[in-house]
Design goal:
There is one protein chain. With 242 residues, the protein is an alpha+beta fold. The protein has three domains: 98 residues, Helix Hairpins (Orthogonal Bundle), CATH 1.10.287; 47 residues, SH3 type barrels, CATH 2.30.30.60; 68 residues, Alpha-Beta Plaits (2-Layer Sandwich). Helices cover 53% and strands 21% of the residues. It is built from eight helices and eight strands. Strands 4-3-2-1-5 form a five-stranded antiparallel sheet. Strands 6-8-7 form a three-stranded antiparallel sheet. Strand 1 and strand 2 form a beta hairpin. The N and C termini lie far apart (92 Å).
Length: 242
């Protein structure tokens, strides 16, 4: 193999494009340094927002590789290398991968949004996508719910991030609603007084705002009282079952 021939060609190329080679080299050096700084700042911002550590690493690596590829393309184009075909191949490959992983990417994007904006957290009781339960784990692709009867529900994050959701644990207090019925002929005033006493004597029931106990309806076979009281959210289930 004639190494001298290739060496001469390389030297001739460098002599002809010396300025562009230096610029390309500087683009690589400075660009890679800037990428390192951008990734570091991005990870610090995600850490401050409380983003899951797994997502921090994944997004940091993803941003780093994308920026490195852009810098590499910019550098080689500086020395006269045709990059149009290279970019077209990357675009086609990205499109193919995106179509093949459409559902997974949607779930990943949903998981990223959930971890960043935190519409709920582990321990919250939520109702979404036709399922209700306590959040036991938030993963990148799925959220795991536990029902009161100890069933495990796996909900894809794509629909969870884009659909309607009720978070029963988001506020510090919740209102408990009851309907108590007495028979026609019973002493309504006494019944109302007994209910009010129950509301006032239970330490879990907040007195500000005061419990509401009033006649609600004259039903077919009972006189119904509407009762509403506010409790701290952790006490909700224990109080509603009294």
């Amino acid at each position: 193999m004639d190494y001298q021939k290739y060496l001469d060609l390389a030297m001739a190329f460098v002599e002809k494009n010396a300025g562009n080679v230096i610029v390309a080299f500087l683009i690589l050096i400075i660009g890679l340094w800037l990428v390192k700084k951008v990734v570091k700042v991005t990870r610090k911002l995600m850490e401050k927002r409380g983003v899951d550590i797994t997502l921090q690493k994944f997004l940091g690596d993803l941003i780093g590789w994308v920026l490195k590829i852009l810098i590499f393309i910019t550098a080689i184009s500086q020395v006269g290398v045709e990059t149009t075909s290279f970019i077209a191949i990357l675009g086609a490959a990205g499109l193919a991968v995106g179509l093949a992983l459409q559902g997974s990417l949607a779930n990943f994007a949903g998981g990223a949004l959930i971890m960043i904006f935190k519409p709920f957290k582990v321990g919250d009781y939520i109702d979404a996508q036709g399922h209700a339960g306590t959040v036991s784990e938030v993963q990148i692709f799925n959220t795991i719910l536990k029902t009161p009867d100890n069933k495990t529900i796996i909900v894809p994050n794509g629909g969870l991030a884009n659909g309607s959701m009720v978070n029963y644990s988001a506020e510090p207090t919740r209102r408990v609603d009851w309907t108590f019925g007495i028979a026609y002929g019973d002493d309504a005033d006494k019944a109302q007084a007994v209910i009010r006493k129950l509301m006032n004597d239970d330490a879990r029931i907040l007195q500000d705002p005061a419990p509401f106990v009033e006649l609600g309806a004259l039903a077919d076979s009972s006189v119904n009282f509407t009762v509403r009281a506010w409790v701290n959210t952790p006490d909700y289930w224990a109080v509603i079952l009294i």
